[in-house]
Specification:
Length: 188
């Protein structure tokens, strides 16, 4: 009988210990979490209560901006910006890939001119170009001249040395069968 009591005490203790362990595990996973620490400075609540957030207001286009947009021949702005980025982005690994990709947007005269422009470097040279803005110099129904302002990044060598600079690209475009084509491109 003494052993039965001892056995009951051990089994009871194990059940109580098991219940406590389960309770601790549940509390660990589902219990209150500490608030995340914030790097924001502590402020007086009366000051923060008075501060309100005003979303930014988008201003309508000015008459000057609308007139400038209308002055561009249809499709020329997008063509010139895209052309400048692709024309100015290339690497010595794929020397004239950018130029061959641009063939449909060039006149035959420009295509012949750039076909002979092959750069051969023994070390890696790459350019990445981003068109920033465009300025219409002159235009009529058959031709136009624009200057595309660009940001260019030059990478030289295998260690990735880079240089960022700004350069303008003057593009002369002609209207061929109601489609604008780039007839000449000159870096300034």
């Amino acid at each position: 009988m003494f052993e039965d009591k001892k056995r009951l005490v051990i089994i009871g203790s194990l059940i109580v210990a098991l219940v406590i362990i389960i309770a601790l595990i549940l509390w660990w996973f589902f219990g209150p979490k500490p608030a995340p620490e914030s790097n924001l400075p502590i402020t007086d609540s009366s000051i923060t209560a008075q501060t309100s957030y005003e979303p930014p207001v988008v201003q309508p286009a000015t008459a000057e901006r609308i007139a400038e947009d209308k002055s561009y021949p249809l499709g020329l702005r997008q063509l010139a910006m895209s052309f400048a980025e692709r024309y100015g982005s290339y690497s010595s690994d794929e020397l004239s890939k950018n130029l061959s990709d641009l063939q449909p947007f060039m006149t035959q005269s420009l295509a012949n001119k750039v076909k002979n422009e092959d750069i051969s470097d023994e070390i890696f040279v790459g350019f990445s170009t981003k068109a920033l803005s465009i300025q219409l110099i002159n235009s009529n129904n058959t031709s136009a001249t624009v200057i595309v302002k660009t940001q260019r990044t030059q990478t030289v060598g295998n260690n990735g040395d880079t240089k960022v600079f700004y350069q303008d690209l003057e593009l002369k475009a002609v209207n061929v069968n109601n489609e604008w084509k780039i007839d000449d491109a000159n870096w300034k």
